[in-house]
Amino acid sequence: MDQAGFEVRDLAPRIGSEITADVDMLMSGACSARIRSMLEERGVIAIRGIHLTDEQQIDFTKTLGSIAEEKTFKITMDPRENPVAEYIKGAFYWHIDGTMGDVPIFASLMSSRRLSDTGGQTEFSNTYAAYDDLPESEKKALEKLKIVHMFEVAQRYVQPEPSHALLQSWQQFQPSRLPLVWTHRSGRKSLVLGSTASHVEGMDLREGWALLTRLRDYATQPQFVYRHEWTLGDLVIWDNTGTMHRALPYAMDSGRLMHRTTLAGEEPFA
User: Domains, the chain, ranges and CATH?
Assistant: First the structure.
């Protein structure tokens, strides 16, 4: 226990910690520095049943860094509440947010407002830990590689036979060339993978696909993964620069609703 009322419990050996703190402590910022350091080390932080309002979630987000937008974003498949519901169907596949740009968001905070009767868990993979456990010889080879990421590749997971008009709308997002191994300013290294990864630059196409698939399977082994079983009022924070995440399937008409805020990016892929 770091201070009165603040407790930490690890959820899995290589990823995820649960903290116990009351709303006043969160809002005061008294534990924000500790939470920031835990995010890089553990990847995911869960706070059970905290039941923050939108205003409280926004204010708490600000205690952790620069908020990307001063509002909550509704994560739901109901198009009446989320006009881009079709787009977020890509959340069912392993991904890192922001691979189509140079500076991805640092972290996300998501609170549960309505749950589905079945499914709807969120899984997280620690890509720092996955890199750390690679053989030294493979680390050196992977650090030389660049991966081309494309928005359209991720969308084909959801709609494998798009119309030409839909494909053109996807192609408004230009491809992004990123390192397979991200060397962070802290000196730590993580893998940059996920559903936007199209191919390995300069490698035979099929050989590159095989490598990316093998690494995804490797990085999502049980020892690197935490699955969050949502209860109402939970708040989960994850380091988007050192984890991948995905939602597990649930009924599209279930009404599942999450409210999300994000912390602005602090360093480019490098």
Answer: 7-263 (3.60.130.10)
What token pair was written down for 37? Answer: 């350091």
* Alpha-carbon gap, residue 81 to 147, rounded angstroms: 35
Helix ranges (H only) for the chain are 23-28, 32-42, 54-64, 127-132, 136-142, 151-158, 164-170, 205-219
Interval 166-207: pLDDT, tens: 999 999 999 999 999 999 999 999 999 999 999 999 999 999
Q: Are 246 and 219 in contact (CB under 8 A)?
A: no
How far apart CA 127 and CA 220 sit, in angstroms, is 9
Burial class for 20, CB neighbours closer than 10 Å (0-12, 13-18, 19+): middle
3-state secondary structure of 187: coil
- Residue range 107-141, pLDDT digits in tens: 999 999 999 999 999 999 999 999 999 999 999 99
CB 225 within 8 A of CB 121: no
pLDDT, tens only, 56-79: 999 999 999 999 999 999 999 988
Which residues, 6 or more positions from 41, have their beta carbon under 8 angstroms from its beta carbon? none
Tokens 């609703």: give the residue: 257
**Distances from the Cα of 108 to the Cα of 8, 46, 102, angstroms:** 20, 12, 17
Q: How far apart are CA 236 and CA 250, in angstroms?
A: 19
Q: Which residue do the tokens 């599209």 mark?
A: 252
